[in-house]
Each structure stands twice: as structure tokens, then as C-alpha cells.
Amino acid sequence: MRLSLKMALAALVAAIPALASAHPGHEHTTSFMTGFMHPMGGLDHLLAMLAIGLWAASLGGRALWAVPAAFVGTMLVGGGLAVAGVQVPFIEQGIVLSVILMGALLVGAARFPVAICAGIAGLFALFHGAAHGLEMPLNANGAEYALGFAAATALLHVAGIGFGMIVARFQAPIVTRLMGSLIAFAGVLLAFA
């Protein structure tokens, strides 16, 4: 088994415990855990972040790290803007649109220069970050909360990358396109929810 496939499988296995406890109703005692659980609890966030990882894996090369890094970095900026009281317009619409468009990018096997792909990911991340920042509990430590939602986001990206690498290993790009269509369809349903 090649090293990259082993790493992909390890990433997926590492993501399972976090995904299993993603349902609401758990009381979290730290700001880090509150931030960590936030992306896990919303289908819109979960789908967009997995889609970013899948897209990065399908692009390969530098995009494998640049696209997720752009998402996490810009998401932190969006969270900081919200905490600072700066209004980011159309947050909910931007989040739902990110799910639909990320699904469409996967369906179309869209390939652009890495900088453009990172820019697309960053644009979507601004909305997700602003939502995380707005929903931060008043008693939370902002830095710990941000670290938590950044860690969860990165873990979801790694899970998407891992799945995408497994798909690539078996040379089954149709699976990535099928996942993209499911993600886009879920985004459309979220738009009307």
C-alpha cells in the first residue's frame, strides 16, 4: 500500500470519532470544544468543508494544501470580522451558495490555476467564518474558540482529501462527481429549508 493511501485512510479513521459525536445536545466545557463542534453540527458547514477537501484532492499538486489553507485562513478572518462587529452581508446565502457551487465544481471536475481555486475557497470561507464568529458564545475565549473551529475545519478538509485520494487511487473520478452532485443537491435543499 502506497504511503499516500495509508495517509488518506489514517485521516478518514481519525475523522470518525469527531463525526460520530457531531450531533447536538452535548455540553462542552471549553471554548475550544465549542468552536470545534460548531462546524460539525451544521450540515451546510460539514458539506462545504468536505467538498473543499475533495476538490483539493481532485486538483492535486500545490492545490492539495493551498486550497484548504486558503479556506482555513480566510475563515479565521471572517470569524474575526464578525467578532469585531463588522457586518459581512449575505452570510447564510453565501454559505448555502458555497455548498451548491462546491458541488457543481466537483460535478464539472473544474480545474483552474491554483491561485484562482484558493481564491474561490477563500471567498466561500469568509461566509463560514463570519457565521462561526457570530455564533460564538459570549462566555467563550475567542482565541480558543477560533482554534477549535479551525481545527475542525482542517480535519474535515483532511477527511475530504483522504476520500478524494482513495477515489483517485482506484481511478474512479465518477465517484467524486457523484459526491459533488449529492453535495449540490443537498445545498439546494438547504436553500429551501
UniProtKB/TrEMBL annotation:
Membrane spanning stretches = 36-56, 63-84, 90-107, 114-134, 146-167, 174-192
InterPro entries, A to Z: HupE_UreJ
Top-level lineage group: Bacteria
UniProt KW keywords? Membrane, Signal, Transmembrane, Transmembrane helix
Q: Which residues form the signal peptide?
A: 1-22
Q: What is this protein called?
A: HupE/UreJ family protein
Q: Which organism is it from?
A: Marinomonas arctica
